[in-house]
Design goal:
The chain is 57% helix and 9% strand. The strands form two sheets. Strands 1-4 form a two-stranded antiparallel sheet. Strands 2-3 form a two-stranded antiparallel ribbon. Helix 1 crosses helix 2 and helix 2 runs antiparallel to helix 5.
C-alpha cells in the first residue's frame, strides 16, 4: 500500500508568504531538533544492549540544522575523545572476521522504531509554531 500526497509545495509557499521565510525556517529547525532528540533517545536505548564502556553512547551528538541540497537537515555524529566515529560502521555492518557483532543493525532498528514518534514530534512542533 502506498500513499501519494500532493500540494505540499503549495502549502509550504503559502505558509512562507503568511509567516515569512525566517519564521518558517525557525519552526522547521525547532521541529528537526525535537525529532532528532526522539531519534537519539531511541538510538541510545538500542546501544545500551551491547555497551561495553558506554563511549559510543556518550559521544552521540547532533549537528545544528543546516541546508543540504536545499533541504534542512540534522546529522547524528559521534564526537569525543574516544573517537567512536571510526568504529560505528563496524558495529552496524560487521566485518569479514566478525560478520555479526552484537550491535549489528542498531542504527537501522533505531530508525525504524522511532519513525512514528519522530514524525509526531515534527508535526506537533510545526502545529505549535503555525
Amino acid at each position: 500500500m502506498s500513499v501519494k500526497i500532493s500540494g505540499l509545495d503549495k502549502l509550504q509557499k503559502d505558509l512562507e508568504s503568511r509567516l515569512g521565510k525566517a519564521k518558517m525556517q525557525s519552526i522547521v529547525d525547532a521541529a528537526l531538533k525535537d525529532g532528532a532528540a526522539v531519534f537519539i533517545k531511541e538510538l541510545k536505548s538500542q546501544f545500551e544492549t551491547f555497551k561495553d564502556d558506554g563511549y559510543s553512547i556518550d559521544e552521540m551528538t547532533t549537528t545544528e540544522p543546516y541546508n543540504l541540497n536545499g533541504v534542512r537537515t540534522i546529522t547524528v555524529k559521534w564526537v569525543g575523545p574516544h573517537k567512536r566515529y571510526s568504529i560505528i560502521h563496524l558495529n552496524e555492518f560487521g566485518t569479514i572476521k566478525n560478520p555479526s557483532p552484537r550491535g549489528k543493525g542498531a542504527i537501522a532498528r533505531a530508525l525504524e522504531n522511532s519513525r512514528k514518534a519522530y514524525r509526531k514530534a515534527l508535526a506537533d512542533r510545526i502545529r505549535s509554531g503555525v
